[in-house]
Design goal:
CATH architecture of one domain: 2-Layer Sandwich
Distance between the termini: 32 Å
Strand order of the largest sheet: 3-5-1-14-11-12-13
Shape: globular
Number of helices: 19
Bound molecules: dioxothiomolybdenum(VI) ion
CATH topology of one domain: Aldehyde Oxidoreductase, domain 4
Oligomer: single chain
CATH class of one domain: Alpha Beta
Structural class: alpha+beta
Radius of gyration: 26 Å
Number of strands: 31
Largest sheet: 7 strands, mixed
Amino acid sequence: MAIAEAPEPKRNMGKPEPRIDGRLKVTGQARYAADFPVSNTAYGFLVTSTIARGRITRIDLSAAKKVPGVLHIMTHENRPPLGTFEFVAKGGEAATAKPPLSTDRIDHQGEIVALVVAESLEDAREAAYNVKVEYDVEAPSSGLDSPGTKTVMAADINARHKDTHAGDPDRAFAEAAVKLDQTYRTPTQHHNAIELFSTTCAWSGDELTIYEPSQFVVGLQHGLAKEIGVDKTRIRVLSPFIGGAFGSKGSVTPRTAIVAVAAKILNRPIKLVARAQGFTVATYRAETRHRIRFGAAADGRIASYMHEAWELTSRTDDYMVGGTRSTEAMYATPNVDAKVRLVKADRNTPGFMRSPPEVPYMYALEAAMDELAFALKMDPVELRRINDTDKNPTNGAPYTSRSLMQCYDEAAKTFGWSKRNPEPQSMRDGDWLIGYSCATASYPTQMGPATARVRLTADGHVLVQIAGHDIGTGAYTVIGQQAAEQLGVPLRNVDVELGDSMLPPGPIAGGSITTASACSAVKLACDRVLARLSGSEDLTKAFETLGVGSIEEYAEYLPKGAKPSALTGLYQGKVSIVGGSGDKQTMYAFGAEFVEVRIHAHTREIRVPRLVGAFAAGRIMNTRTARSQLMGGMIWGISSALHEATEIDERFARYVNDNLADYQIPVNADIAEVDVILVPEEDSEINPVGVKGIGELGNVGTAAAVANAVFHATGVRIRDLPIRLEKLLATT
Ligand code: MOS
């Protein structure tokens, strides 16, 4: 794949500064959670259940205890009491409300049944392999179509979700000139970040330090305080660098509490690193199914949009994504019916994974849009143009800005859309069938409350502190740029500290909110610093006049539309996110992604030689890190379209390819040209810095664009992701 230069900043875009933490990373000095040297560490290893549903009848530890070096084995029979586990979707921090080692009941395959602690990792692992667990086994339900699942309406159990019914969708559908009724599926996907799920807990007296990769150090601090019944001021969480998170490190998984209490019992630091067990002791993206019905007039105007969705969740928790809030705002469809159902099975609780609602729901919508365009004999870009809207049609709330069609126009031009023959199977190069298609990317513009401290010293150095996170996105750099540009100092003079719960509380690095939220807080703090300097151009003189060596200011940012209690909540580790589809305003970033696929006429091998994405997301802080983020998102989109799926053995509700070696993801040879176009956009409504956020935008829409291009190349619609060659072969 060609390495392109960072895009030239246009209009209001920030400079393509290289990452300020880049040198630390390439020289190995960046310290990830498991890298912190902690002396006298003991090692933990988890024993997990081999069944998905039933009861533990007996645990035999005799062989495990004979392994040299074993220090402690914790099971539900000897675990000390724990506090409360508040589920993340109910306003808490925990990835599941079921505390670890709390009962003999097993609710999913791979549930933690013991924690072994020993002098070395090898000792702990050997002892763990010698823990003998006997079960009473019950037949599990593994997935959406399994017998024994329980299906509930999401709106009945989740106070934050409402199904939408607007206008008269049934009648509009019945009367429509062109109708579509299709079902789309997305598979289970698992996090396979290069940095594993690790936890190191070290007590010093009554003070606990936790080294754990986290997208929300303040949330982990407060969540764990409740889980183990310790005052929150006695807990410090350190997570300055994160090697891939994507949602998997945003909530508190059960391992942390038991490692913390075991470390207290042994009065020794314990380090735990979960490898293959990451598939079941952390969260994942669950499978979804979507029935979409479109009714359209002959001119392409969509009269009816009905979207019924099913999402898989666990028996213990009601995790849901509910992406219809995003899809129903997309196009000018006045008659809408959207329903979300949760299907409860014997699986571990799903959780956040990059663009949790939009990846599956926008895939279904945008694949259906392509099918509708084909049925209408209309150009797919024109279908989006005809149905473009400046407001959410279901509630009339206007978009603060929406540059969707500018994205389509720019991407189409660069891609060479005009060379496309609309007829499926009409474009060919020797043995390769060529498909061109496109789809919309969108992601809600969201913000959370944030605080920041900024110190300017007389020699022109700046320190910015916020308990925010750089999950590989470039947050250190763009937060530094915000302060540098405002205070008029070079970026190299700015130090940025993140990822420490002792710093001023920052938001969860989720929902693509970090840049907008953290930079807004930093902006407010810098405004105060500048006010103290009262407009003086000469820094040295200004400091002399003030008679101080440095100025330090603290600021709190409360997003527009957030309740003041959200800020209080931030100090207590609560997640609060506003934006997206609101009652008064609609805030989204948009993109248009165009893809060329080539499919071998005989083997059906699928290649993606070209992907062009144009994105408009308010102010772009840094065109280099933005390009990188959007490119990474599109590459994951190719993965969703063609590669990734967790296979499930339905007899045992067990993941089969439960490790990075067996889990299919694209390699370099699968990715060719990926072109990112940044479309300038200004939006002063959303937040003080005009930033929309791009962490999740790029991988929305890609899967549909690829699937649509596969149809264009072959004339075959595969509606169940991923589209692998065997599915294409089965149809020809
Ligand atoms: Mo992201 S799935 O909101 O970390």
